[in-house]
Phospholipase/carboxylesterase/thioesterase domain-containing protein
Amino acid sequence: MASFKQIKFFVESKGVRGLLEKDEFLRSYRQLLDGGRTVHSYDRKFGELNALVRTNSASPKVAVCVLHGFGANMENLSPFSDVCERVIGASAEWVCIIPNGGLDLGGGSRAWWMIDLQRLQAKIMNLQFSEITKDVPAGLDVARSRVLDLMQEASTAYSLPPDAWSVCGFSQGGMLTGDLLVHMEPPPNVAGLFSAALICEDLWTEQISKKPLEARERLKKCAIVQSHGTTDMVVPVIAGHWMRDYWQKQGLKVDFDQFNGPHAVGPGAVDKFFAKVLEADRAKTR
């Protein structure tokens, strides 16, 4: 058995950076000896956010950030990483990161920003379109910064290429995903919007208009996978239509699945999202 000093030297010689703890070095060492395709799961903090991490490589080229909904936590969306492993598997070197929202609601529940759900639902049901779609939630800017910081720190830790990222989210996490889609540079390869409403319409449009032509063209290449249940009583399906129509108006292609069901992720939607992630990665090497 090699000494820890030898293990540390070996791991770092392979270009793996950002590891701090002894068990992280040991995991990476075993992974490298196994050829870089053994899947490992662990918790890690990036910036201010604790996260679940699942990866099959010490130096991944594909990165996915998964954002939970209001009142949930990272554990609720941990099955997304199972789908990532099943769909992408050994076809690419990937890391799937599922962070906890920055707000603690108590009892294990988390959020990205505070929401008055009853007020939101009433506005949607009364078709108060402009009040909803133009609303910029208090705390959105903080949530955005926290996730962007997470991505930056993860990019450094795993030596990710700049165009490695795809993002998806459910409900409030889907709304945050839409906001990140506008503010990330380069934009994500794929965005998954599951049971999410359109918000910040004017803010997003202004942000897009400020981008140079080349950046706007890059944004249009982002593939959007969207799903919404017809019996959703939390975020009614019409709010999903508003989200779909907005991105189509901006010139993006939206794969929209309207399924017969409640406030949930549509059947097959997560598989489709990760299939698009793999497709985007393969397209880079053609």
Observations:
- The longest strand covers residues 40-46.
